[in-house]
Amino acid sequence: MVKYVVKKGDKYYPSDEMKKIAWIKSDSIYKEAKKNPIKFWDNLAKQGLYWEKLWDKTYEEKLPYFEWFKGGKLNASFNCLDRHINIRSMKDAVIFVPESTKEKTQKITYMDLYKKVNRFANVLKSLKVKKGDVVSIYLPLIPELIISMLACARIGAIHSVVFSAFSDEALKTRIKDGKSKVLITSDGYYRKGEKKDLLKKAKSGIKGTKIKKVVVVNRLNKKIKYNNKFVSFEKESKKVEQYCEPEIMNSNDTLFILYTSGTTGNPKGIMHDTGGYLTQAYWSTKWNFNLLEKDVIWCTADIGWITGHTYSCYGPLSLGGTLVLYEGGLDYPNPGRWWKIVDENKVTSFYTAPTAIRMFMRLGEKWVNKYKLDSLKVLGTVGEPIDSDAWNWYFNKIGKGRCPIIDTWWQTETGANMVNALPGVGPFIPGVAGRSFPGIKHEVVNEKGRKSKKGFLVQLSPFAPAMLQGIFRNKKRYRETYWKRFKGKYDTSDGAFYYDKDNIRITGRIDDVIKVAGHRLSTAEMENVLNGDKFVNESAVVGIPDKIRGEVPVAFVVLEKGKASKELEKSLIKLIRSKIGPIAGLNKIYFVEDLPKTRSGKIMRRILRNLLTKESLGGVSTLVNPGCVDVIKEQLV
Ligand code: WTA
User: Is the CB of residue 299 below 6 angstroms from any atom belonging to ligand 1?
Assistant: First the structure.
């Protein structure tokens, strides 16, 4: 088996074999990019994408806003489909693996995908969707999700994908904020052998919204009642013309909105443009995974999250690559399923989250050892800091000590990966993400915004092409969240330190966002749900470390009435799961008399968290009610 890495000291470097095939083989790219990042991205945008018209200005910055490729014109679906048709029409674009092993894997060629997207784009037009309209998509991991996204892009509509495991309430909030009139969903999907009903949640989610049409994919072969409002994805696609002219979009036209959790109860609609986003999706997929023409990439993230948008759709498809899309549970019908998929489809580039790796560690290596995994070339990780145990297990058991691990730091807001080590350059260090992607600048700063060995991770101007355009219909929140703390620098809300001169280690969020099994959740959103219950007066949710899931949420609740009991705890836990989704499963609720607060009334979640993790509490003198800390402490023993 080819060895792509060699060990030197405590670090790994690309081997000669990797250097032979690597797109980027040396440091010099970083130096070249640093000299003139704007020119660097200008060249990459021209080389990577097909533009109807080139831009008049490469970069313009009027903080907190900045624009790339101003005046440039292109279409994202054209870049992912039409331009591949002559040379790759019979190449697989999507390998769809249904959860049931009785159902066959579906290989969708570029030609097939092109046809399906064109037809569905015409369906959307027939439903009166126009350029600039927001279309909500609530679909499981099935090809129709990618088809819907590309069809929106084709006609210039803005897609807003909502994770299918989110609740009806979460869907409603996102539909309302986006003001969408059309929803694309399915009757359901398979998860761990069971049929999950999605349409029921969708029907409840659209109540009280402006949704006029619901397009339903028939995944479970259920009998669906169609009418004027509910129409069939399959039937409508047959009724329309087979070709749809792609809408020529400005580089700065919004391609999609994706809602993500912040520090308040309302999720933020992160907006991404067309040209800048696609440029970086293209190049980061190509370089991070060293994607060659015959390669197969599998990013296990759900497309309901940014990782799936960029690395299960726009990145691989704009490159003309082949991607794997797996519908189901990670251990269905047994914990060998993922590795079976890797072998059967000769996956070369595999991308997942530390939480999945920790889960497989627990399940035992016997499931992994049944498979060869010899097609693998590059492994990636994303979503949360990876500890060295998980890193080494991934490296040795999955990569068999042959493959580099690309630890990619980024966010919904950054659109594409920003900090990593490139496969042909290295070094690959357990637990250390690496350095800024060529052409991007980060710094670790202290509270005053000055460079420091340890502190806050910020991004510097010129801001990367794939960075967010703003928060949908909320300029104030955009400015305050990302641009207030450090003048002229983008605030990531992540802590970090320099591992050595070049490489950065990310320590995780420093705000009230938590990462549960790699999923981004807001503690404030969970508190809103709790506080809405008639028994609850106020609450504080904090994340505490968990061996498998990274972090898990626990709540401190002050009751308004009633008595603390196991039943009440259970019913509140159930309430959060139903209002947000099963990923927001609270681990425990502590019923307390009072919550530690500052004079201005801010609940000090940090103190509660530290009480649970037995870390030092820090200053309690600024609290208006310091006595409550001791009371809670006693309660926890
Ligand atoms: C965390 C996911 C450490 C980080 C792409 C960030 C990471 C948040 C890494 C964004 C990594 C992501 N190492 N932490 N390699 N990648 N994070 O928006 O805290 O779901 O701010 O985007 O995930 O989560 P989001």
Answer: no
Pair (529, 477) in one structural domain: no
Residue 620 confidence (pLDDT):
81
State whether the beta carbon of 409 lies less than 6 angstroms from ligand 1.
yes
Q: Which H or E run includes 126?
A: helix 110-126
Cis check for the bond before 333: say yes or no (omega within 30 of 0): yes
Span 202-250, pLDDT tens digits: 999 999 999 999 999 999 999 999 999 999 999 999 999 999 999 999 9
Residue 505 resides in a domain: no
Residue to probe by mutation, ligand 1, list 257, 411, 413, 523, most atoms within 8 Å of CB: 411
pLDDT score, position 264: 80
Place of tokens 């968290």: 609
Is 181 among the domain residues? yes
Query: From the CA of 515, how far away is ligand 1's center (Å)?
Result: 8
Q: Residue 557 is part of a domain; what is its CATH number?
A: 3.30.300.30
Residue 345 has pLDDT above 90, yes or no: yes
**Cβ atoms within 10 Å, residue 328:** 20
Same domain, 103 and 175: yes
- 539 shares a domain with 461: no
Ligand 1 mean position to 519 CA, how many Å?
A: 9
247 occurs within a structural domain: yes
Which domain does 626 fall in, by range?
517-636
Residue 447 lies in a domain: no
Quote the CA–CA distance of 520 and 574 in Å, as a whole number: 19
Global model pTM greater than 0.85: yes
Q: Does residue 382 have its Cβ closer than 6 Å to ligand 1? A: yes
CA atoms of 581 and 573, how far apart (whole Å): 11
Ligand 1 atom closest to the CA of 493, numbered from 1? 21
Pocket test for ligand 1, best of 311, 494, 505, 521 (most atoms within 8 A of CB): 494
Beta strands in 199-312, from DSSP E residues, in sequence order: 213-217, 230-232, 249-250, 254-260, 268-273, 296-299
Query: Based on the domain organization, do 466 and 553 belong to the same domain?
Result: no
- In tens, the pLDDT along 363-383 reads 989 999 999 999 999 999 999
